[in-house]
Write a structure and sequence with these properties.
The complex is a heterodimer.
Chain A: H1 21-37, H2 46-65, H3 71-100, H4 102-110, H5 122-144, H6 156-159, E1 168-173, E2 177-182, E3 192-196, E4 201-205, H7 206-215, E5 218-220
Antiparallel strand pairs in A: 1-4, 1-5, 2-3
Helix pairs in contact in A: 1-2, 1-3, 2-3, 4-5
Chain B: H1 13-19, H2 50-74, H3 80-84, H4 88-106, E1 127-128, E2 132-133, H5 134-143
Helix pairs in contact in B: 2-4
Classes of the chains: A mainly alpha, B mainly alpha.
């Protein structure tokens, strides 16, 4: 696709690395798969989202100008639909996790240290706060109003379950890792270390590899 | 089946849930049923211990999750028949939720935003009847305004 996108120009500022459109979509797909298979909400990739939206708008403009019935236009439109699907699916996945774990997501964001990357984009943070307030109001008005006993507040942090970081995930190794410590499953076992060879695939508990997913050393599949 | 409409009062969402017989509502497209909880106890039952209170809170929250799903299934305008089964607080929650969602979607990207309640399935075929592109009428098909004709 990169060579047919002659009109595309990178409008990112100099401080960011330049990517071809193909690389950008590749990064979007990686972020999408990671988000789909990780039990918890991952770091937000706002830069990728913004660039992809720019590219989509650009492609749409090109399509408006092109001749109707042109074969290339049809192919480009199919590509636009594919990209829009992946982007929408990625954002939906994140929103679902935000809603599912909303007290914990907000707590994590509040207790984040200065300089640490944010898990929520500013817009997602606003959405999460509104969701929390809305749900809290509802529960107070409906579930608690008519109860004789004094259930003062519902502690949403305790009632809403946390993501299960011990769930198993499939991954493919992108950057070689040494001495990954695997926790024992039963009492008879002991912990042992494995090396992750580049290109190898593994089934392992998410908790063990969470930092590797964040750094991009492994790809969830 | 008892007519639970007569029991409906201001802010009586809780009462609807517990004092009516089962009223199961199935919607087309299998789009999730908004069920009123069955109560094995008599009308005007009031939870008066911790277990019943917790059950009430859980069933309220469970309904909320299903109402949330309605926004993604039906769009921002709910069919009247569904709205009838929601109490004032649930309607208020729904309105706030769809406002939050709309604000979020508008904020995506530089201009105009992105409607992520569309494109729910990966694209397979491109056009419908060769003159209306799928991406233009997806929502309308789900709402039943348009029909996908296969010839």
């Amino acid at each position: 696709m990169a060579d047919t996108m002659a009109g595309f120009s990178d409008s990112e500022d100099e401080s960011q690395e330049l990517m071809t459109p193909a690389q950008l979509i590749g990064k979007l797909e990686e972020a999408w798969l990671n988000e789909k298979f990780a039990p918890e909400l991952l770091e937000n990739k706002s830069e990728i989202v913004e660039c992809v939206m720019e590219q989509l708008n650009h492609m749409e403009e090109n399509l408006q100008r092109s001749k109707k019935g042109d074969l290339r236009a049809t192919i480009h439109r199919m590509e636009t639909e594919r990209i829009r699907y992946v982007l929408s699916s990625y954002l939906r996945c994140r929103l679902q996790k935000i809603e599912k774990y909303f007290p914990h997501v907000l707590e994590k964001e509040k207790s984040r240290a200065e300089g640490e990357p944010s898990y929520l984009s500013p817009e997602e943070y606003a959405f999460a706060k509104e969701y929390y307030a809305n749900t809290e109001t509802f529960l107070k008005n409906v579930a608690l109003k008519n109860m004789p006993a004094n259930l003062q507040t519902v502690d949403l942090g305790k009632s809403v379950p946390k993501p299960n970081l011990d769930s198993f995930v499939f991954l493919r190794v992108k950057e070689r890792q040494e001495n990954i410590l695997v926790e024992p499953e039963t009492d008879d076992q002991r912990e042992y270390a494995v090396d992750f060879e580049e290109g190898s695939q593994h089934l392992i508990r998410y908790r063990t590899v969470a930092p590797l997913v964040a750094s991009g050393a492994v790809q969830l599949i | 089946m008892e007519d639970h409409r007569n029991h409906r009062k201001e802010g009586s969402c809780h009462r609807i849930g517990w004092s009516s017989a089962v009223s199961a509502v199935e919607w087309p497209n299998g789009g999730g049923s908004l069920m009123v909880e069955v109560s094995s106890l008599s009308t005007n039952f009031w939870p008066h211990n911790a277990f019943q209170e917790e059950k009430a809170a859980v069933s309220s929250y469970d309904r909320l999750l299903r109402i949330r799903a309605l926004r993604w299934e039906y769009g921002s305008v709910l069919p009247t028949a569904i709205r009838f089964h929601m109490c004032a607080e649930e309607l208020e929650w729904f309105n706030q939720y769809k406002k939050s969602l709309a604000t979020y979607m508008r904020s995506l990207g530089g201009e105009g935003g992105l409607d992520i309640t569309q494109d729910m399935k990966p694209p397979k075929s491109l056009y419908i009847e060769h003159f209306l592109p799928r991406w233009k009428c997806e929502q309308l098909i789900r709402q039943g305004v348009l029909e996908h004709v296969l010839s």
